[in-house]
Amino acid sequence: MKATQLLVLLAIALSFSAYGQTKDNWKSFNKDNYAIKYPGDWELNQSGKLGTSFILFSPLSDEQDQFKENVNLLIQDLTGHNLNLDQYTEVSVNQIKTVLTGAELIESKRIDNYHNVIYTAKQGSFDLKFEQYYWVKNNKAYVLTLTCEENQFDAFKMVGEKMLNSFLIR
Question: What is the mean pLDDT of residues 149-168?
Fold first, then answer.
């Protein structure tokens, strides 16, 4: 019994220790119209690759890891399209289903002022899982995406959603 209690206490202490290290090591990225927080060991890329405003790349887990899980932001100008959040979401979900190889919608739900979509798809040799948040504000669509290898999604879900939930539009 005492050994079990000791193991539980050790596990709790380690989780608090790990949480504290992660919390203290977070950085902020601020632009005029948005801000996001991310882990200090993730790489911020502002090259505009694939039309993104930024991409945050996770470190590789080991030498065999060939995919960097990431969070990226796309901002689309909706001027002249007159789309609200529900309409934008409908168009986006339809594109996911028709454009991406093997796409499978897992979840689509409205949460307050944004819409959350989770889906899987194949990209090259990778089986990926995506979680996206959509906002429509001032004739712009903001699409914030967590992209993971499907078998790594659960491992990155907590830190990924912490980043997604830290995102602010100004």
Answer: 98
